[in-house]
Amino acid sequence: MASTKIKTGIVGGAGYTGGEMIRILLNHPDVEITFVHSRSNAGNPLYAVHGDLLGETELTFAADLSNDIDVLFLCLGHGESKKFLEANTIAPSVKVIDLSQDFRLGESLPGREFVYGLPEMQRDKIKAAQNIANPGCFATAIQLGLLPLAQAGLLQEVHTTGITGSTGAGQSLQSTTHFTWRANNVSTYKVLTHQHLKEIRRSLQLLQPAFTGNINFVPVRGDYPRGIWVTSYLESDLTLEAALQLYKTYYAPHPFTHVSDKQIDLKQVVNTNKCLIQLEKIGTKLVIHSIEDNLLKGASGQAVQNMNLICGLEETAGLKLKSIVF
Amino acid sequence: MASTKIKTGIVGGAGYTGGEMIRILLNHPDVEITFVHSRSNAGNPLYAVHGDLLGETELTFAADLSNDIDVLFLCLGHGESKKFLEANTIAPSVKVIDLSQDFRLGESLPGREFVYGLPEMQRDKIKAAQNIANPGCFATAIQLGLLPLAQAGLLQEVHTTGITGSTGAGQSLQSTTHFTWRANNVSTYKVLTHQHLKEIRRSLQLLQPAFTGNINFVPVRGDYPRGIWVTSYLESDLTLEAALQLYKTYYAPHPFTHVSDKQIDLKQVVNTNKCLIQLEKIGTKLVIHSIEDNLLKGASGQAVQNMNLICGLEETAGLKLKSIVF
Amino acid sequence: MASTKIKTGIVGGAGYTGGEMIRILLNHPDVEITFVHSRSNAGNPLYAVHGDLLGETELTFAADLSNDIDVLFLCLGHGESKKFLEANTIAPSVKVIDLSQDFRLGESLPGREFVYGLPEMQRDKIKAAQNIANPGCFATAIQLGLLPLAQAGLLQEVHTTGITGSTGAGQSLQSTTHFTWRANNVSTYKVLTHQHLKEIRRSLQLLQPAFTGNINFVPVRGDYPRGIWVTSYLESDLTLEAALQLYKTYYAPHPFTHVSDKQIDLKQVVNTNKCLIQLEKIGTKLVIHSIEDNLLKGASGQAVQNMNLICGLEETAGLKLKSIVF
Amino acid sequence: MASTKIKTGIVGGAGYTGGEMIRILLNHPDVEITFVHSRSNAGNPLYAVHGDLLGETELTFAADLSNDIDVLFLCLGHGESKKFLEANTIAPSVKVIDLSQDFRLGESLPGREFVYGLPEMQRDKIKAAQNIANPGCFATAIQLGLLPLAQAGLLQEVHTTGITGSTGAGQSLQSTTHFTWRANNVSTYKVLTHQHLKEIRRSLQLLQPAFTGNINFVPVRGDYPRGIWVTSYLESDLTLEAALQLYKTYYAPHPFTHVSDKQIDLKQVVNTNKCLIQLEKIGTKLVIHSIEDNLLKGASGQAVQNMNLICGLEETAGLKLKSIVF
C-alpha cells in the first residue's frame, strides 16, 4: 500500500533552517522526508551534523535530488535559491517553498510564480499557491505587529527596534558570533537600512496603498541564541481598547498569533511557531510589541505552516511545539 | 461516546515541573488534563502563570481535586507529597506519580507502595506498578551513566562531576538564582554530600549488591537555565570497545537513552526527554559522560514516560519533543 | 604627620553602587575611606557582603556616622537620600554627593543646594559646587548622546532605544531579575514613560531652551549584568562629517567621553568610567549610539569623577579602570 | 631627564593575552610600553584591534622590535615563542617573560635559562631570574589549590574538575567558541589528558618528590567568557582546622592568593589578579576550591607580577584591579 503522506525534500539541510525543517518534519503526522540534500555531507547520517537528532532518525544526507516528492524546501543562502532552481530540473508538479529572500519581492522564474507566505496576511492566496516565498525573520515579526493597522488604513511613520538572537546570523563563524565577543555584549547593524524593510513595505502597501511613511528600524544583536523582540510605535488616534479590539479581531482566525493582555517576554515563544503581541497606549502613541522564534515563525516553522496550507492540511499540523520557557 | 483518553490531574501545577507536565500533556495524543490544582491560582487561566501557554489552552487552575481521573501527578516540594496524600482522599484506583523525593527510598503509605520510576532500570516493575516515585534529576543522569556497569558487576569507586542549570533550583527567588549573581558565575554546593546519592546508591546496589565503593559527587551550579551534564570516571578493565558494546546492548531496548560515538554537548538534549551517553577510555580509567534536560528526563518528561508505561501506552507517546539545539 | 588625603564616608555601602564606590575609592591615590555605613551589617568586614573585597581591605561596616570627613557619598534608594539628610546632622563643611534621584530636578534642602553632576555638561559649575546630584544611568548615556546637538540648538524630536544590564535593577530579588527568567530573555518596561526623561529634558532645555520635541524612549531589559546601550536618532541637516566635527569638538576637553570612527560595541566600556559615542547618517536622519557601564559612568564612577572635580583633584584620578573587554 | 621607568616590549600584542598585557601596563605606575609588535597590524593604533583602548592611548603597533627595553613579553601561541627567540636577536640584558608553554618544563635556549614563574611556589628564584616561563591558566589554579599540601608532603591521588571561560580558547573562530553553540552549553575536552598536567606534576614533585599519585583532571568548557573554577579533592588525615591553618600560613606572605572562610564563587576574582581558595572536609576527603581569572592570574596578570619581582618593584604594582563582581 502506498503511503498517503506528503513527500518532502529538503535542500540545504546542513544549515540552521534546514536542521529546524528536519526537526519539525520528523514529528509531523502527515509528512515524510524523502530526502535531505547536502553534497558535502552525502552519505553521512543527519545526526553527524545535527547532533541532537541522534536517536531520532537513521536518515542520511543524499547526494542526489529526487522528483518523487510533493514539496521541496529550499534552505539556502540568499541568491542561492534562484541559482539552484535555474541549475536543476524540478518537476512542475513539485511545490517549492523557498526560505531565502530571492522571491519575496515578486521575482519569478519561467513556470514558477511565488506567493509571499505570510498566512496572517493572505492565507487564501497561499492555499492556492504552487510556490511560496517564505518571509524573513525580522520581516515576519514587524509585519505581524503592523498588519491590523495597515488593513484599517491607520499606518503612519513607524519607529521600530528589533533585537535578534545569534542564530539569525547563521552557522558560519564570524567575529560577531564569536562567543567571547557576543556574550554580555550589545551592538547594532544596518541601522535604518535593513534589507527586510523592502518586503515589509511591499506587504503594508498592499493593505494600505496610500502608506508612504517611513519605517525606521534599528536592528540590535542580542546576547542569546534564539528569538526576536520587536517594539514599534507610531502616532495613533485609537484608544487602547479600540486597538486591542482591532488586533484581536484581526488575529482571531489565526492559530499562531495571539494578543496578550499582559506584559510579554521573549521566552514565551522561543522554540514555538507562535507570535505574541502586546499593545500599550502612551499619550498619543500606540506601542506594539511582537515576538517570535526567528528560526520557527521567522523561518522553518512558517515554511511548514505554509506547506500545511498549500497541501490542504490542518494549519497547525506538526507545529504544536513545546516552548523552552526557561 | 465517552472519551477513551487517560484522564490526568496535576497537583502543584504552578511550579516549574508542574508547568512542564502541562506542556507535555496538552500535546499528548492519548491523554487529557482533567484538572490542574492550585489553591492560590484557582480560577485563573493556566497562561496567567505560565505565559507561554497563551494560545495553547483556555484551561483554568482548579481549587478542588477530582477523583474522576486515572493518573495523578504530584509536582510538589520535598516533604509535601507525603503530607498531601495523608491529608486528601485519593481513590484507590487512581495511579499516583510523585515527583518529590518522598518515596524514592522505599517509603510507602497504607495502601500505596511506590516503585522507583527509572525505566532504564526496571521497566517491567514500572509497568505493573500502581504508584511511582519519580527519580531525581541528578540521580537520573548519574544512574544512566552507571547502570550497565552495575548490572555487569563492574562498579568501583566513582568520581563524578555534575553541572546543573538554574531551573534545578526552582522558581523561588534566591541569592543563587539572582541573575546578576549567577550570570557568568560558577559555584558548587553540597559537595560529596548531595541528597540524591542515597537513591543512586540504592539503585546501584540492587543491580550490584556487593558494591560498596564511594560515589564522590561534586555538584556545580551552571550559568544557564536548563540541562544537566555529568562526567563520571572509575578504574575499569574494560576496553573502550567492550564498554561501548556493554552500554549499547544495555540501552538498545530503551527509546530515550542513546550512546554516542562522537563527543556530546549538553544542548543535544535540552528540551527533550533524551539522555545521551559518551564513553572514553583513558589509561586504566573509563570515563562516562551523560546528559539530560533536568526538567524533562530529569523530572516531568520521565514522569510522563512512567505514565505511558503504567497505562500501557507507547513508551514514547507525547514525548517526541523538538530540541532547542541552539 | 596628618594624612592629606580626602576623607570620605559612604552611606548605603551594602548595595551595588555602594560596593562600586568602595572598589574605586580603595584604589584611589588621593582618597581614604573613613567609614562605610550600614546599620544591618555593622561590625562585619566589607568582604562579608562584597566577597570580591577579600584580600583588598580589612575595613568593617560602621554603625555610626562621622563628621570628620570631606565628602559623603549617599548610595541610597530613591526617596531615601532626602530622608537621610533630614534625619541626620551632617556638618555644613561636608560635601554631599547623592546618587539617588532626590535632587536631580533642582530640589534642595535648607543650606544645601545641589548641582546636577554631569561633567560633560557643566564642569565649571560642578567644580564650584558643595553638593552634587549624580545623574541617573540611562539619563547619562542618553544625554551624552545629545548634548552637542542641544548646545548647537539642533535638537528635534528624538527616538531612543536603551538596553540595560540587570545590575540596573539593584540587588533585591525580583521576578525580572530571576536568572531562570532573565537568561536568554528580552522585555521592555516603562515604555515612553521612564522617570529619567525628566532630568534629561531639564538638561537639554538648559542648553537649547526652545527645545520642545519629544524624547521617545523605549527601555529594554538586557540579558547581561552590566552596561547600557543607547541608540537615538532624529532628523538633522548635518552631514556626517559636520556631526562628527561637532561631537569631537564638544568632547575634546572631556577625558571620559570619546567619539569612535568605527562601529562600537558595549563591552568596550564595561567596567570603565568611559562613554563611547558613534555617529551614523542615514538619509535625513542622524543616528547616535552611546554606551557606558551603568554602575560606573552611570553611577559610582561618575560620582567619583564629581568628587575629583569638587575637590580639585585630577578629573581622572582613581578612574583609570581596566575594562573587562571579553 | 631620562625616564626611570621600566621599558617594556610586547610581542603578539593583537591577541587576548597581549591585549591584557597592554591594559595592565598602560596603568602601571612604574612601567612604560616601548613597543607593541604586530606585523599584520603595524602602523595601526592599538585601539583599532582592542576597541576598549579608545581614549586610553594613541600608541600604534610597531613593525620592528627594539632592544632598548628592559623586559620583553612574548604573548605568542605555543611553539611560537621558541621560534621567535631563535629567529630574532634579543639583547642579553633584556629579560624575557614568555606566556607560552615552550619553556615551562625546563627547556632552555643558549644563554637563556627559564624559571617557572609561579610566585607562590618560588618567589625568590623568580626574583633572581633573567627569564620567566609563565605558568598555564589551569596549571596556576590547580597548583595554587595543592601547593601547601605538596610542601607538607601530604599529596595523594587527586581528583580535579576545572571549568574555564571561552577566552581560554583564544580569539580564533572555532566551532566550540561559536556563540550559538556555546551559549547555555556544557562540554568537556582532553579529559584526564590535559597538557597542563605536565607542568603541574613537575611543580608538585619539586615540593614533594615522593608524590607519584595521579592528578585526574576533567576540563570543562564553561558558558561564560572569563574565569577558571577548580575543585580538587583527595584523601587526607587533616582536620578542616588543620588544613585551614596550613593553607593560611602558606599564603600569608603572598598578596594575591587568599583563603576564604566562606563559600566562594567565580566572580569574586574575575578581572583581578587574585586567586581565592576555599576548603571543605567531607568524611575523609579534603576538598579544595580555587578560582582565578584565566587571563590575569592565569596569564598576563601573573606575567606582570613576575616582572615586578624580577625588576625589584612592589609585587602588587599595577595589579590592584577592580573586579567586575557582577
TrEMBL record, chains A, B, C, D:
Write out the annotated subcellular location: Cytoplasm
Span of domain Semialdehyde dehydrogenase NAD-binding = 7-129
| Associated pathway | Amino-acid biosynthesis; L-arginine biosynthesis; N(2)-acetyl-L-ornithine from L-glutamate: step 3/4
What is one Gene Ontology biological process annotated in the Swiss-Prot or TrEMBL record? L-arginine biosynthetic process
Name the catalysed reactions.
N-acetyl-L-glutamate 5-semialdehyde + phosphate + NADP(+) = N-acetyl-L-glutamyl 5-phosphate + NADPH + H(+)
Q: Name one GO cellular component term.
A: cytoplasm
Keyword annotations:
Amino-acid biosynthesis, Arginine biosynthesis, Cytoplasm, NADP, Oxidoreductase
Active site annotation, chain numbering: 137
Enzyme Commission designation: 1.2.1.38
Q: Which Pfam families match?
A: Semialdhyde_dh, Semialdhyde_dhC_1
Q: Which GO terms describe its molecular function?
A: N-acetyl-gamma-glutamyl-phosphate reductase activity; NAD binding; NADP+ binding
- Superkingdom classification of source: Bacteria
Sum up the protein's function in the record's words: Catalyzes the NADPH-dependent reduction of N-acetyl-5-glutamyl phosphate to yield N-acetyl-L-glutamate 5-semialdehyde.
Similarity remark: Belongs to the NAGSA dehydrogenase family. Type 1 subfamily.
Q: Which HAMAP family does the annotation name?
A: ArgC_type1
Q: What is this protein called?
A: N-acetyl-gamma-glutamyl-phosphate reductase
Natural source organism = Chitinophaga rupis
